Amino acid sequence: MRGMEIWINPACSKCRSAIGLLDAEGADYTVRRYLEDVPSEAEIRAVLDRLGLEPWDITRTQEADAKELGLKEWARDETSRDRWVKALAEHPKLIQRPIITADDGTAVVGRSEEAVRDALSR
User: Fold this and answer.
1) What are the alphabetically sorted keywords of the record (predicted)?
2) Which residues belong to the active site?
């Protein structure tokens, strides 16, 4: 995966601000509407590796889906990792957004202007 990609939900204001900032900086990026173009478990694992985070770190635990699944009760350890990744792939609404994969192979969760600028600088 080369180049910059941003996973967005167009209804999310933080996603729209991130896109606005990327455009203002003239960044070359592709948009992925991850609720329609749902990432596979393998893609989620690859992004987690790039972020240096665990699946529970990028899970929106306040979402209705999370409450339904009882995610707050799930263990957060190596043996539960696959269960979390599977939940994110099956319920993409649970994925924190926006996620920006940078040109250098890293990624950031672009919820602040600083984080988006961080991705741009890589």
Assistant:
1) Oxidoreductase
2) 12
